[in-house]
Amino acid sequence: MAKLFDFQQVLKNIPELAAYLPITLELALLSMLIGLLLGLLLALIKMKRIPVLRQIAALFVSIIRGTPVLVQLYIVYFGVPMLLKHINQVYGTDLAVAQIPGAVYAVLALGLNSSAFSSEMIRSALMSVGKGQTEAAYALGMTYGQALWRIILPEAMTVALPTLGNSLISSIKGTSLAFTCAVVEMTAMGKIIGGRNYRNFEVYVSLAIIYWLLTIIIEQLLGLLERKLEIPEQVANYVPEEKAG
């Protein structure tokens, strides 16, 4: 009679699943990078209240937030090839649609999803930077782009760091749906292993352990980075004991 739960099988699965961890991390980091860049663009459009673009950005964010990420993955996976084939037919181009790997669609869909949620986070972080610093940058002859890159973004990212950590963790967990785009990452490999040994419960316990440990590591690294970023402020506010007395 087969065991109800085989912990040895859980331990045996972990190395085989962990071999696909680099693919999971690559998908997460690339999608988060797209999300941050597009999220920054959306945030700036909203802050500057650019006509038409502001309405388009609001509609985009509303659609992304109002639909499941799984549906978005399917739309991108099936919709982008249809669009490219249509372009080939209309303009006589020769875009190699069949040669585009599924990972590209997964990164694109996850990146678009991340951007909608990152935009509000980035906007609030940008607004937390004092207007006096921006005005000082203008007084020194900087353009808005220079002030944004040299002053506003560094300070805003410090404020947004905890939320960015949550965004990275969400991106990592979101890659578990990349199998819909025919990408074999950890979760997809888990399905393969489960179909091979019929111990699906043990496989998903193994996956849960890996994702959990990965989340703990990221949280520890972010905590360390936050403490590093707090040091200059602590030094600036330090008052020697003899002066304090």
Describe this structure in words.
This protein has 245 residues and is mainly alpha-helical. It has a single domain, classed as Orthogonal Bundle (MetI-like fold). The chain is built from 10 helices and no strands. It has helices at 7-18, 21-48, 53-65, 69-91, 102-127, 131-139, 144-174, 186-197, 200-236, 241-244. α2 (21-48) crosses α7, α6 (131-139) crosses α7 and α7 (144-174) packs antiparallel against α9 (200-236). It is flat.
Give a quick precis of the structure.
Mean pLDDT is about 90; it is low at about 235-240.
Keywords:
about 240 residues; mainly alpha; MetI-like fold
> Overall 3D geometry?
flat
What CATH calls the topology is: MetI-like fold
Run of helices and strands:
HHHHHHHHHH
CATH 4th-level superfamily? MetI-like
The helix/strand class is mainly alpha
Strand content: under 5%
Task: Quickly count the domains.
Answer: 1
CATH class: Mainly Alpha
What is the C-alpha radius of gyration, as a whole number of Å? 23 Å
> Helical element count?
10
Strand-helix topology:
Elements: H1 7-18, H2 21-48, H3 53-65, H4 69-91, H5 102-127, H6 131-139, H7 144-174, H8 186-197, H9 200-236, H10 241-244
